[in-house]
Amino acid sequence: MFCFRCGTNRLQAFLFLNMTIPLILGLLIYLTAGSQTYISSFASKIGIAVKSIDYPGMIRAHGCDLLWGYSLSSGLQLFIKNGYGLPDLLKVITVASLVALAMESIQVFSFVSGTFDVKDIIVEFCAICAAALVTKIYTGRHQNEKRCTE
After folding, report:
1. 101-122 pLDDT, tens per residue?
2. Beta-carbon contacts of residue 123 (< 8 Å; ≥ 6 apart)
3. Three-state DSSP class for 42?
C-alpha cells in the first residue's frame, strides 16, 4: 500500500515529481519558444497551436538542458533500491553525466539536429549535481522518521 508518511514511499514520490515536473516544464519551454524543434513541429502537425513566448536568452539557450539534466538524475535515483547514500549518488552523477555528454555529443553529427555546445554540458552537469544534492538533503532530513505499519 502506498503511504506518504512512510519514508521510502515518500522519497520515491519526491523523486518521481523531481523527474516529471522538469520534463513537463522543459516540454512547455520547447513548445512555446517559437523556434522550429521536433516537438513544436509534431505539435503543429497534430493541430496543437501554442502561443510563442519570448524567453530571456539564458532560459531559451540552457533552460531545457538544466531541467532535463535535473530530471535525468532524479529518474536514475528512482531505479536505485534503498541506495540513497553518497556512493550511490556518486554513481548516479557519473552515469547521468555520461548520458548527458553522449546526448550532447551526438549533435556533432549531421543526422541529429541540434547545436553542440560545451555550455550545455556544464549546465547539465550542474543540474545533475543539484538533483543529487537535493536528494541527499531530503533523505538526511527524513532518515529518522518512523516507517508506516500496515
Report:
1. 998 888 887 766 677 788 999 9
2. 62, 65, 66, 69
3. helix
Residue ranges of domains in the chain: 7-142
Spell out the SS3 assignment of 88-105: HHHHHHHHHHHHHHHHHH
Residue 28's nearest CA partner among 60, 70, 5 is 60
pTM of the prediction? 0.81
- CA distance to 19, 41, 111, 137, 148, per residue, from 7 (Å): 18, 42, 45, 13, 8
79, three cell numbers: 531505479
Q: How would DSSP label each residue in 58-84?
A: HIIIIIHHHHHHHHHHHHHHHTSTT--
C-alpha cell at 69: 539534466
